[in-house]
Structure formats: C-alpha cells, structure tokens
Amino acid sequence: MSELRKDPVTEHWVVIAPERGSFPWPMPAEEPSAPDELNPFVEGHEAFTPPELWAVRAPGTAPNTPGWSVRVVPNRFPALRVEGELAPAGVGVFDQINGIGAHEVIVESPDASMDWPDMGPGQLQRVLLAYSDRIRDLRHDVRLRYHTVFRCHGRAAGATLSHPLSQLVGLPIIPPLPMAKLRSARTHFRAKERCLFADLIAQEQRLEKRVVLQSERFIVLAPYASRSPFELVIYPLRQCHDIVLMSDDERFELASVLIKVLGRLRTALNDPPYHLQLFTAPNTTPRPGRTDMWSSLEVDYRWHLEILPQLGPPGGFAAATGCFVNPVPPEEATAYLRGLNGGSA
C-alpha cells in the first residue's frame, strides 16, 4: 500500500507508491556529445571562455593557458550579473530586485570524458576546493545573501555538454528551499536545544534501513521522504554549518565517498541524469535591524549535498498538489545500492 511521508527539514510531503512500479528501468544511453573542437572547456580552448577567476595549475603556467586541472570562469550567459545596484522596490503587492548576483562555471577537468566516478579522489578534492574558495571570496560582496553550487549531469537534467562542469551562483536573496531548511533547523534548536540534522542522522544510524554508505567523516542516506527513486543526501558527521570550513582531509574523504556513491548510481541505473545541489550556510553579514538572525546557525544547521536522479518528468499529481510521487521506497533503493560497487576510489 502507498503511504504519505513528510520530510522534517523541508516539511514537504511525498507519496511513496511502490505499486506504480517496484523498480525504475535503467536509463537509455545518451547520444554522443559534441566533438572536442566545439567544446570551449577542453584544454587548449581557454581563449573561448571568459578570463579565469580561479584555477589549480601546473607550476609555471600562466592564467588562461593550458596546464590547469580545475578552472573557474564567469558564465558567458549568466542568469545574474555583479554589476549594478539592487534597487529593491514594491510593485503593488509584488516585490522586485534587480538581477544582481554571481554566476560562475567550475570546469572540473580538462578531459571532457572524465566524470566524477572516473576521477581519482585527488582530482575531485580540487573541485571541492574550488567550491569552498569561490564561495568564501564571493561572500565579500555583502549584497549577496546566499551561495550555492549545482551540477547537472545528463541532457535530461539540463546539461548541454557532457564535459564535467558545476555552476556556482550567488543570490541577493535566500531562495525558498534553503530558507525552509534554515527555518526548520532554527525552530527545532529553539524548541529542543539540539541540532535537527544531528537528531535525524542519529536516528538513521540506529535504524540502518536507509544508510547507503558511511565513512569516518560522512554519511550517505536515502531520505525517508525521497522525492525521486534513488535520491541521496550526504552529511558530514561532525557538526559543521558551512562547507567553507572543511579541511583538506575532509575534502579528500568526501571526494572518495562521492566517487563511490555516484559509481553505484551509474551501475544501478545506467548512468542516470541527476541534479547535485549544495545546501550550506548563508552569508551571515549582519542586516540592519536583524543582527541576531543567524545567532544559533553554527549549532543548529549542517551543510549537505543532495543528489536527485531525474528519471522522468513530474506527473500531473505533483503539479497539482506539490507532492512528489516516488515509486521506489528509499529502503529498497538503499538495499540495492549497498550491494553494488562503483567508482574508481
């Protein structure tokens, strides 16, 4: 029988409906990607991108030349731009702000075929360092209140090139989903003086039914109210509200965990399209009249990564109700992924 489950962090409801299909069919193989001569992100094509903002380079190599292993450049077609003023205004009952922000592309490898499950942990560690360093730098712009990184893998998830890329955005607002998580965390802490995420992780460790993988410093869970088949979330086991605070050792271990778990997803579902999303602390620069807004953030919030496979478009039920329908119980997905190997780590 199907059941409705509520996520305690976002407070969204999900219908777990195994009778709609006990297991998703593997995704069909994607068409070949564009040849390298049309790809602006391969090594040797640095002139086809805006000037780099950050890079890991071989000694003696100059910016915007070959010799890099990870490279960050402005998005050529940005959703938001850093130039200008916010100019917030009311338009009747509506709110409006100019499209001020940051939009960057993190080129994860000079090799277009090197996806995360194929990388060594050292290379992916450098990608994660780019996430932290660029967020830290962008926080100096006090206009920007929230920064996140997202990764679209596969055309069905919105990727236009097969080259391994992430995108970083800085926004002058805190969007609804991160704000819902931040509010739930703060409310839970004020009521119980405990971190909501610590309580959730401790319960999942006791139950074990939805723990896909656990290392010394990280845990991978299939969320109780998974929105799609094989949705996963990765938490640090230590209390840490901000990805910027990760150590080099933690980045290396997280890279190894990501390689393993994405390798298992690739094996289970024939390299499915997915969205990977970072949820981390907002910019805590005090706001006029709201100086205590993030006073408990260090103890009530925990940064995390979500991996959301895109195995089909949302149905009419989801569009009409806002409730996702998932035909694969997370407990089944967990059991299946535990039995698989994958990735190069």
Strand content: 15-25%
**Largest sheet data:** 10 strands, antiparallel
Radius of gyration: 20 Å
Main β-sheet, spatial strand arrangement: 3-4-7-9-8-13-14-12-11-10
Low-confidence stretches: none
User: How helical, in percent, are the residues?
Assistant: 25-40%
Number of helices: 7
Terminal-residue CA separation: 39 Å
- Structural category: alpha+beta
What is the average of the pLDDT values?
90
Would you count the extended β strands for me? 15
Molecular shape: globular
Order of helices and strands: EEEEEEEHEEHHEEEHEHEHEH
Question: What does this protein structure show overall?
Answer:
This protein is of the alpha+beta class and 345 residues long. Helix content is 26%, strand content 21%. The chain is built from 7 helices and 15 strands. It has helices at residues 121-138, 176-192, 196-207, 248-269, 297-300, 316-321, 330-338, and strands at 3-6, 13-16, 54-57, 68-74, 89-91, 94-96, 102-107, 146-153, 165-171, 211-214, 218-221, 232-236, 274-279, 304-309, 324-326. The strands form 3 sheets. Strands 3-4-7-9-8-13-14-12-11-10 form a 10-stranded antiparallel beta sheet, with helices on both faces. A hairpin with a 2-residue loop joins β5 and β6. α1 (121-138) crosses α4. The longest helix is centred in the C-terminal third of the chain and has 22 residues, at 248-269. The chain is globular and about 60 Å long. The protein starts with a strand and ends in a 7-residue tail after the last helix.
